[in-house]
Amino acid sequence: MFRSAAPADLDTSAVGHEDRIFELEIAEVTYETEDAISLCFAVPEHRKSHFRYEPGQFLTLEIPCTDGGSVARCYSFSSSPVRDPYPTVTIKRIQDGVASHWLHDNAVRGMRLKALKPSGMFGPENWDADFVLMAAGSGITPMMSIIKTALLRHTNRITLVYANQNRGSVIFAEQLTELQSRFPDRLDVHHWYTSDSGLPTAAGLASMGAAIPAHCEAFLCGPPQYMNVAEEWLARTGTTAHRTHREVFSSFDSNPFQDDTTAAAHEPDANSVTAQVEIEGISTEFAWNADTKLLDRLLELGLDAPYVCREGTCGGCAYTLTDGTVTMLANETLDEHELHQGVRLACQSVPAAEPIRAVFDR
Ligand SMILES: Cc1cc2nc3c(=O)[nH]c(=O)nc-3n(C[C@H](O)[C@H](O)[C@H](O)COP(=O)(O)OP(=O)(O)OC[C@H]3O[C@@H](n4cnc5c(N)ncnc54)[C@H](O)[C@@H]3O)c2cc1C
Ligand code: FES
Q1: What span, in angstroms and rounded, lies between the C-alpha atoms of 225 and 283?
Q2: Smallest-distance ligand from the CA of 252
Q3: With left for phi above 0 and alpha for psi between -120 and 50, is residue 34 left, alpha or beta?
Q4: Which end of the chain has fewer CB within 10 Å, C or N?
């Protein structure tokens, strides 16, 4: 479907913002360690076909605050879409953390929470490649989803290096031991405890004797220092990773559940370009001013573009640029491979050269 949009004549009823918001019921709360809980969610029957996720993706939850407001926080799926009946996220309690404390203290079976449609770009495209997974603390969550999916549905080999404070803080310790004994030739798990060995270093990681395939895809999730050390170690082993994916866990100030999407659209100025953007199969053509970010323009036109952080860090607003050129003001999530494929972030794109054509296909 195609339509040409002047701000005043847009019919937004077909693509309402509410379509991206789900009300999920907590089906089960599991205490994984002293400071980590898992929440399994029941998806309403009539919305199941819209709620699909891939290993490596995350769920954005709206979490009530004691002052009566709310915050939005992202949590990677620890469940596998091909194995686990309920989509599940696992939350570590963070010192003085608003949302993690609230969830640990209040989440119970039957509670309903608002969530955005799953999103994120951290996950394998090529399941034939061998994987090296480097996780620290709660950074294990997307790795669990990837490991369970790979072992069940694919034939590749996986090496996991998992850093924690001590043995008691290892989330999913039993599941990992069980998976390792079921798939001894395909899953190789190495634990690093800072209580025994101090903070990980490239030399220290090398001394663990983990089997690293010469060609692989590497997935890193943990504090930035840990991911830097992991990359240094991989480089030292002579590993040629086809791709190295990084996921940074952080909190955002923006709250996509509370945004006012009724702001008036700006009139095109003398420097505006023409853009054609497809969202959910509907193409819209509009004028785009050079100083306006694509996401802001789409939202002011009443179009239902996906987003979470609006800071260039989560990948929730990713789209593919098929024609023209845009400039990205920031990018803390897309890697070289994705950029080469034409993937861009709507919350950070301003127009550079027309005609611009883009499709939200992520
Ligand atoms: C894609 C993605 C996936 C994620 N997946 C997971 C996951 O699977 N599991 C998980 O546990 N977490 C995950 N996170 C992190 C999660 O979204 C939250 O950031 C985390 O739960 C902390 O939120 P909080 O509200 O408890 O802490 P916040 O209140 O946001 O505080 C975080 C820390 O910052 C400090 N802080 C806050 N404000 C300030 C300030 N003004 N000055 C100085 N320090 C401050 C606090 O003391 C605290 O230590 C993920 C994040 C992203 C982006
Ligand atoms: S909304 Fe998070 S990167 Fe754009």
Answers
A1: 43
A2: 1
A3: alpha
A4: N
Map residue 12 onto helix, strand or coil.
coil
The pocket around ligand 1, CB under 6 angstroms, is made up of 58, 73-76, 89-92, 94-100, 120, 138, 141, 247, 249-251, 314
Q: Tokens for 146, please give them.
A: 């990837």
- Residues linked to residue 320 through DSSP beta bridges, in sequence order: 343, 359
Q: Could you tell me if residue 12 is inside a domain? A: no
Question: Are 102 and 137 found together in one domain?
Answer: no
**Ligand 1 centroid to residue 17 C-alpha, Å:** 25
**Domain containing 74 — which CATH number?**
2.40.30.10
Q: End of a domain among 57, 89, 116?
A: 116
- Of 119, 313, 331, 335, the residue with max ligand 2 atoms within 8 A of its CB, to mutate for a pocket test, comes to 313
Which residues on neighbouring strands pair with residue 351, listed in sequence order? Answer: 326
pLDDT tens across 104-145, in order?
A: 999 999 999 999 999 999 999 899 999 999 999 999 999 999
Cα 317 to ligand 2 centroid, rounded to whole Å: 5
- Return the CATH number at 136: 3.40.50.80
Nearest residue (by CA) to ligand 2, atom 3, is 312
Q: Which atom of ligand 1 is nearest to the CA of 250?
A: 19
Q: Are strands 158-164 and 187-193 parallel, antiparallel or unpaired?
A: parallel
Best CA proximity match to 171, nearest among 41, 38, 61, 56: 38
- The total of structural domains in the chain comes to 3
Q: What is the CATH number of the domain that holds 282?
A: 3.10.20.30
Q: What number of helices (H) and strands (E) belong to the chain?
A: 8, 17
Single pTM value for the model: 0.91
Query: What ligand is nearest to the CA atom of residue 120?
Result: 1
- Which of 225, 247, 269 is the last residue before a domain boundary? 247
Domain residue limits at 266? 260-360
Q: What is the pLDDT of residues 11-66, one digit of tens each?
A: 333 334 567 899 999 999 999 999 999 999 999 999 888 899 999 999 999 999 87
> In this structure, is residue 40 part of a structural domain?
yes
Over the chain (362 residues), the average pLDDT of each successive run of 10 is 49 51 96 97 91 96 90 97 96 96 97 95 93 97 98 97 97 98 97 97 92 87 95 85 86 86 74 93 94 95 92 94 97 90 97 94 83
| 154 CA → ligand 2 middle, Å | 31
In a domain? residue 11: no
